[in-house]
Amino acid sequence: MANLDDLLLCGNDEALRYCHCDELLDADRKRLPCPMYHDCDYVRKRNRLIEQACKIASERVRLSPEDDSKDARTKWTRQFSIVMDELSAPLLRNGA
């Protein structure tokens, strides 16, 4: 018996694959097919790092009196991205 993934074919006869990762919902909450190389296990492990990355980014951000709210958001976002790269690097090296 074929599963749903086997029945959903794209133009080149490759089955589309769907999963439950929230990052594959569009703005209207419609489920998108998994892109090539999508790894649900990696996504779950990476998402578990978000709370820790938020805390570290907040600790690292240094604001000056001249910074407005846009500058503060930009600095925090930059630090968050750096921290996520640092924390998730072992997941990539070890094959998630």
Q: What is the element layout, followed by pairings?
A:
Blueprint: H1 4-7, H2 40-47, H3 50-60, H4 69-93
Which strand-content bin applies to the residues?
Answer: under 5%
Q: How would a textbook summarize the main sheet?
A: none
Task: Tell me the total number of β-strands.
Answer: 0
Please bin the fraction of helical residues.
Answer: 40-55%
Number of helices: 4
Give average pLDDT, whole number.
85
Categorize the overall geometry: elongated
**Which class best fits the helix and strand makeup?**
mainly alpha
How many structural domains can be distinguished in the coordinates?
2
What gyration radius follows from the Cα positions, in whole Å? 19 Å
